[in-house]
Amino acid sequence: MSAPPPPKALSDRQAACLYWSAAGKTSWETARILDVSESTVNFHLRNACAKLGVRGRRAAVVAALRQGLLDAVTA
Fold first, then answer.
1. 52: which residues sit within 8 A by CB, 6+ positions away?
2. How far is residue 52 CA from its own chain's centroid?
3. Domains in the chain and their CATH numbers?
4. Which of 6, 11, 12, 54 is the most buried (most CB within 10 A)?
5. Angle subtended at Cα 47 by Cα 24 and Cα 37, rounded to the nearest 5 degrees
6. What is the rounded distance in angstroms from the CA atom of residue 12 to the CA atom of residue 68?
7. Which residues, 6 or more positions from 31, have their beta carbon under 8 angstroms from its beta carbon?
8. CA of 18: how far to CAs of 1, 6, 9, 10, 36, in Å?
């Protein structure tokens, strides 16, 4: 039996956008926190979804947590 493929690494920006999404922040709020545009946040979230093979930010957060690519949000 073969081992599962290693997880694809997320960029720092993709991980940051997923982190704030996991904390319940909207794209607009995340954009303000990271000092980027809302469309930039959505761009990074879409790319993270594609890397993780999921549809939607919630599914991406779950996949990233399961694969150890995102630190758990404790707040």
1. 8, 59, 60, 63, 64, 67
2. 9
3. 12-66 (1.10.10.10)
4. 54
5. 60
6. 14
7. 37, 38, 40, 41
8. 32, 19, 13, 10, 15
- Quote the tokens at residue 32: 């303000």
pLDDT tens digits, one per residue of 8-51: 789 999 999 999 999 999 999 999 999 999 999 999 999 999 99
The one-letter amino acid at 52: L
From 51, 61, 59, 52, select the one nearest 16 (Cα to Cα): 61
Residue 15 to residue 27: CA distance in whole angstroms: 14
Q: Which residue, 73, 69, 75, 21, is CA-closest to 45?
A: 21
pTM (2 d.p.): 0.87
